[in-house]
Automatic annotation (TrEMBL):
InterPro entries: Lysidine-tRNA-synth_C (IPR012796), Rossmann-like_a/b/a_fold (IPR014729), TilS/TtcA_N (IPR011063), tRNA_Ile_lys_synt (IPR012094), tRNA_Ile_lys_synt_N (IPR012795). It comes from Microvirgula aerodenitrificans. This is tRNA(Ile)-lysidine synthase. It catalyses: cytidine(34) in tRNA(Ile2) + L-lysine + ATP = lysidine(34) in tRNA(Ile2) + AMP + diphosphate + H(+). Its main location: cytoplasm. GO terms for cellular component: cytoplasm. Belongs to the tRNA(Ile)-lysidine synthase family. Its EC number is 6.3.4.19.
Length: 449
């Protein structure tokens, strides 16, 4: 049905929307939505589900003293996207519900268009800062999600991926109050209430897996299992219980495997059974905001005994000497800077850390007043004066147990055309201050340490 303007919106959840209002009231998050204090925002696509949710909530929120707004995410993927935004604007105006429209750019990044659009949508929704975001997912959506995750080989967490209430990861909560209602019930309520909505043409495209499940698999399933929605909802609920227990087990075990620098100790991890390895490794990666897949877990466990550097999204996974560390991805330092010889901490633009300068009587380097000290990025074939000759910096790094990726981000201090120091690691022996003289000492504190 094409979107059109209505003359008057429903002022209360009357008879056609009573079942919807009852479902919302049943799952009302009392502890999160307090009268006069809380803000709930409806994710409004303009489709029938979100239109019904907004109309039912518009009266309930007023009655319960909760501030209600709506957000429409404009992906720009459909030629009708502007029309959908206009429809949502008109609907919210009639309901007197404030609306914000978020225009997003969907970057596939090598993944599926569906996943990229979903990630962009949730980021945009989170930007509103609402205490609770209301999503219009229903019983059919839940059943399709369970089937989709099962066909992908998902475990307990994947099967339980659509709970009524969960934290969003952005400081708020995601709330799905319509999960007990079927799509047909919601559409029937909308027709009886005389509501209008828009249809997203992509929902009929069988190239998308969820649509293939909805239009091709579910009809066959319903013929043999008429109660499939309820049974799949039970599967999701049991999976949620199991996932919660596994999460508790991982949370109590990980601290014993994690060092002060946040690195995961792989050697003791590999002494456990494969199911334990996968559970703990996945939990660690999720805490580091890494997107986990069975293939990634297999790759990391296969390479755990060796050094590795893998990029996953905006994270770099670094394995060295039996440990795994996760760091944000970013460019390597490439700028040369002049270092001011002043005691204290010095931040270096473009470098992931802070230099510490101090004067000391023993072990410091002698520098005349006005000496020019440069901070330089790595170079091939670096050597540092040590004893009667020079020593390759590569060996100094190895002796210090410094992983390759840390070496690449560790500053080199140069003076008078020669390497002066690797801060905190070694200094040029031919530049050491004489007994009785005060010299300069250099330390390096990496970001996040």
């Amino acid at each position: 049905m094409d979107a059109s303007r209505k003359k008057t919106p429903p002022d209360a959840p009357d008879a056609p929307l009573a079942a919807v209002a009852a479902a919302i009231a049943t799952h009302w998050p009392e502890t999160l939505l307090r009268s006069g204090q809380s803000h709930v925002e409806v994710a409004l696509s303009g489709g029938v589900d979100s239109v019904v949710l907004l109309c039912a909530l518009s009266s309930l929120a007023t009655a319960r003293g909760v501030r209600l707004t709506a957000v429409h995410v404009h992906h720009g993927l459909s030629p009708n996207a502007d029309h959908w935004a206009a429809f949502c604007t008109a609907l919210c105006a009639r309901l007197q519900v404030p609306l914000r429209i978020e225009r997003v750019r969907v970057d596939r990044g090598g993944g599926s268009l569906e996943a990229a659009a979903r990630h962009a949508r949730y980021r945009a929704i989170a930007a509103g800062g609402a205490d609770v975001v209301a999503l219009a997912h229903h019983a059919d959506d839940l059943a399709e999600t369970v089937l989709l995750q099962a066909l992908r080989g998902g475990g307990a967490r994947a099967l339980a991926a659509m709970p009524v209430l969960r934290q969003s990861g952005h400081g708020g909560w995601l709330w799905r109050p319509l999960l007990q209602l079927a799509r047909a019930d919601i559409e029937q309520a909308a027709r009886r209430a005389g509501l209008d909505w828009i249809e997203d043409e992509s929902n009929a495209d069988p190239r998308y897996r969820r649509n293939a499940i909805r239009h091709q698999l579910v009809p066959v399933l319903a013929n043999h299992f008429p109660d499939y929605r309820r049974q799949l909802a039970r599967t999701a609920a049991r999976a949620a219980d199991e996932a919660a227990v596994l999460a508790d087990v991982a949370a109590s075990t990980l601290p014993g495997l994690t060092g002060a620098d946040g690195a995961l100790a792989l050697t003791p991890l590999l002494q456990r059974s494969p199911p334990w390895q996968r559970l703990l490794l996945a939990a660690y990666l999720e805490r580091q905001a890494v997107s986990v897949s069975p293939a990634l877990l297999e790759t990391l466990l296969a390479q755990a005994a060796h050094g590795f550097e893998l990029r996953v999204g905006d994270r770099v996974l670094l394995g060295y000497r039996g440990t795994l560390l996760v760091r944000p991805d970013g460019p390597l330092p490439s700028v040369t800077l002049i270092l001011p010889l002043v005691e204290g901490e010095v931040s270096l633009p473009g470098w992931p850390g802070t230099l510490r300068l101090s004067r000391q009587a023993v072990g410091g380097v002698a520098l005349a007043d006005g000496s020019r000290v440069e901070v330089r990025p790595p170079a091939d074939g670096e050597t540092l004066a040590q004893g009667v000759g020079h020593k390759a910096c590569r060996k100094l790094w190895q002796e210090a147990g410094l992983a390759p990726w840390r070496r690449q981000r560790w500053p080199r201090l140069w003076a008078d055309g020669a390497l002066l120091a690797l801060p905190g690691i070694a200094v040029a022996s031919d530049r050491l201050a004489r007994p009785g003289e005060t010299g300069w000492a250099f330390g390096w504190v990496e970001s996040g340490q």
